[in-house]
Amino acid sequence: MDIVKLAASGMILTSSAWVGLQAALRLRRTEEQLRLLRAALERFAGQMQYSGTHFVPLCEQTAKAVRGSVWTFFSLLGQEAALPDRAPIGRTRRAAEEAGLVLPDSALAALERLFDDFGQTDLDSQVSQLRLTTEEIIRLSDELRVQMKGKCRSYALLGLTTGAAVLVLVL
Predict the structure, then answer these.
(1) SS3 labels along the chain
(2) For site-directed labelling of 152, which of 24, 122, 144, 169 has its Cα 20 to 30 A away?
(3) Angle separating helix axes 2-51 and 55-65, nearest 10 degrees
(4) CA-to-CA dists, residue 115 to 72, 93, 102, 169, angstroms
(5) pTM of structure
(6) Residues in CB range of 34: below 8 A, 6 or more apart
(7) pLDDT of 36-69, one tens digit each?
(8) Rg of the Cα trace of the chain?
């Protein structure tokens, strides 16, 4: 019977530690995606201002310059925009969810304001909105980077502590 208790204890501690580590990994993934998104938006702005490219080719060109979920996001965004029967409202959220982006709500809201209405205003207004969105992404990325080390450690420690508390309750 002692071996069963020992195995159960190990499973409880391992699974709770795993949950804490997964939360820390998710936070790191969010920070990486924000960095890639920042670079993609800066490239998007440069292409838009200097070549006057339309939205779908802009998305395709931007997708080629990035990787991972951000690549998938811009690819899907371009595909959504190319469909004539799709309403532009909601395309950003659909593309972000399908691409698996793990972004804070304020970042997703800024992207929606930019891309759901893209092409409805003049170039200067679009560039201004793009600049505001990029600034929001930069702010969130910097904020997350400052807090990252402490938060990741807290998540891992919280997972272990929770596992130990459950273990005490079970035993």
Answers:
(1) CHHHHHHHHHHHHHHHHHHHHHHHHHHHHHHHHHHHHHHHHHHHHHHHHHHCCCHHHHHHHHHHHCCHHHHHHHHHHHHHHHCCCCCCCCHHHHHHHHHCCCCCHHHHHHHHHHHCCCCCCCHHHHHHHHHHHHHHHHHHHHHHHHHHHHHHHHHHHHHHHHHHHHHHHHC
(2) 169
(3) 130
(4) 15, 10, 18, 50
(5) 0.72
(6) 103, 107, 137, 140, 141, 144
(7) 888 888 888 888 777 766 777 787 877 887 888 8
(8) 21
Contact 97, 24 (CB under 8 A): no
* Six-digit token string for 137: 């992404």
Answer whether 21's CB lies under 8 Å from 163's CB. Answer: no
